[in-house]
């Protein structure tokens, strides 16, 4: 959840305008590349890697940005569907959802026999919300930040602490369902209150995803210690409301996901742990942002807060 030239090793939930040194995972094959003999390794690959990290082609750069899937001389796309990573991801998700819901419908009688008091609507909403979060992490990267797209963009291999936190939340839910089932019949778990919680989670998810879209190539899942040409300071849209809207969105989404499950211990735990995590991360990240943008970022930080509770800015 040291030296001045080493990236901070926190591979979780990113902030807004961080530099983006990752190379593209989508090299465009040359025509008949599959027939060509392999070329010997170049003496140095730095120039090529450098060219592929910018969203704007640099002077003399032979590698243009590719927003569509790599082309091949073996097959020409019909053109009736967008041939992009985002389109592929969305189509795969829709087909998978249809298969999953169809199988659930087909096995409904078995599920009714197996399901106990723990099978409440809020558990299903929670699992759907977590899955949607990881899908949208990839969608926004594939659609608006393609040079950083990889399987890691799903954030499924996020920090161990992240997975442990959700596992503890589910454990509290199942323990409460077994030993204290009556608590789920209280006003604290009434339908109107659950509806409000779900609305807050949806809004928080929109804030995080929209922040990633607005930052585009300036967004990174890892705090960077090196500024690249495609990195700009984003101050419009959500960034005029919060200077770290992706953090803010995730914070409220995560905390309210535990409220949705009716958890008490993990809700408090999420508030404490996430507040400390983001406080440390923001201080570290803004150290580099001040170095990259100087007084421009210092003035921006004075004008715009984080909208995170329990965070005390170092400015």
From TrEMBL:
GO cellular component: endoplasmic reticulum membrane
UniProt record, GO biological process: methylation
Keywords: Endoplasmic reticulum, Membrane, Methyltransferase, S-adenosyl-L-methionine, Transferase, Transmembrane, Transmembrane helix
Segments for region (Disordered): 1-64
Enzyme Commission number, as recorded: 2.1.1.100
Transmembrane segments: 85-111, 123-142, 162-181, 193-216, 250-274
Catalysed reactions, as listed in the record: [protein]-C-terminal S-[(2E,6E)-farnesyl]-L-cysteine + S-adenosyl-L-methionine = [protein]-C-terminal S-[(2E,6E)-farnesyl]-L-cysteine methyl ester + S-adenosyl-L-homocysteine
Membrane-topology descriptor: Multi-pass membrane protein
Broad class of the protein's primary localization: endoplasmic reticulum
Cellular compartments annotated: Endoplasmic reticulum membrane; Membrane
GO molecular function: protein C-terminal S-isoprenylcysteine carboxyl O-methyltransferase activity
Pfam families linked to this entry: ICMT
Keyword NADP annotated: no
InterPro entries reported in the protein's UniProt record: ICMT_MeTrfase, PPMT_MeTrfase
Assigned protein family: Belongs to the class VI-like SAM-binding methyltransferase superfamily. Isoprenylcysteine carboxyl methyltransferase family.
PANTHER family registered for this protein in UniProt: PROTEIN-S ISOPRENYLCYSTEINE O-METHYLTRANSFERASE, PROTEIN-S-ISOPRENYLCYSTEINE O-METHYLTRANSFERASE
Name of the protein in question: Protein-S-isoprenylcysteine O-methyltransferase
Taxonomic source organism: Kwoniella europaea PYCC6329
